[in-house]
């Protein structure tokens, strides 16, 4: 809940439309849930980024959990290792303009997304 509220405030500050706000907040919620449920907790970083003539909101979620053995499989809709629907990572990717994921089994996972205005 705290992450969702902070992301919404940042999106509002950037002047995101309601649709853009909903997309970035939904992606943040999914990634925060994954960080807690699968990574055992971690960090979420929210930053406003400027690139040439555009501004965006960049979110980075990191954990030191078990990691993801097969990232491509984890990104497929319907794949899950828990009780969810298996839409979190793939959904977050679709709701973002930029999506990066790095994970190593036994070391944790880092997911960074950016939504541009």
Question: What would you say about this model in short?
Answer:
This protein has 117 residues and is α+β, with helices and mostly antiparallel strands. The protein has helices at residues 2-14, 18-37, 71-74, 88-94, and strands at residues 42-51, 54-63, 98-104, 108-116. It has a single domain (2-116), classed as Heat Shock Protein 90 (2-Layer Sandwich), CATH 3.30.565.10.
List the helices and strands and how they pair.
Elements: H1 2-14, H2 18-37, E1 42-51, E2 54-63, H3 71-74, H4 88-94, E3 98-104, E4 108-116
Antiparallel strand pairs: 1-2, 2-4, 3-4
Helix pairs in contact: 1-2, 2-4
Radius of gyration: 14 Å
Average pLDDT, rounded to a whole number, is 91
Helix content: 25-40%
Basic shape: elongated
Strand order of the largest sheet: 1-2-4-3
The CATH architecture term is 2-Layer Sandwich
The biggest beta sheet reads: 4 strands, antiparallel
**How many DSSP H or I helices?**
4
**Secondary-structure content class:** alpha+beta
SSE order, one letter for each helix or strand? HHEEHHEE
How far apart, in Å, are the first and last alpha carbons?
23 Å
CATH superfamily: Histidine kinase-like ATPase, C-terminal domain
CATH first level? Alpha Beta
Strand content: 25-35%
CATH fold descriptor: Heat Shock Protein 90
Low-confidence stretches: none
